[in-house]
Design brief:
Largest sheet: none
Number of helices: 3
Structural class: mainly alpha
Low-confidence stretches: none
Distance between the termini: 56 Å
Mean pLDDT: 94
Number of strands: 0
Shape: elongated
Helix content: over 70%
Radius of gyration: 16 Å
Amino acid sequence: MNFTGLIIAVTTFLVIGLFHPIVIKSEYHFGTKCWWAFALSGIIFIAASLAVENGILSPVLGVIGCSCFWSILEIFEQKKRVEKGWFPMNPKRRKEYQNK
C-alpha cells in the first residue's frame, strides 16, 4: 500500500487548519502590515520545496508555502471581518480600522 497521498492530504488539512488561527492572531497583534512576513515565508517554503527531493516533504513544503501566500489575502480579509464586528478588535490599534 502506498500512503504518500494520504500523508500529504492529512498534512495539507492540518496546515490549512493551523493557518486560520495564525492569520487571526497576526492581524490582531500586528494588523495588515505583517503581510510581508507571510510573503517571505512563502518564498522560503516554495524554494525549499523545489530543493528537496523527498516525495512527501517536498509537497508538504509547497503546501506550507502556498498557505503562506494565501494568508496574505486572508489577513486583509480578516481586517474586514474585524471591521464588521465578527472578530475582536485590538484596542491598541483602533485607529487602523474604518468602523471604530
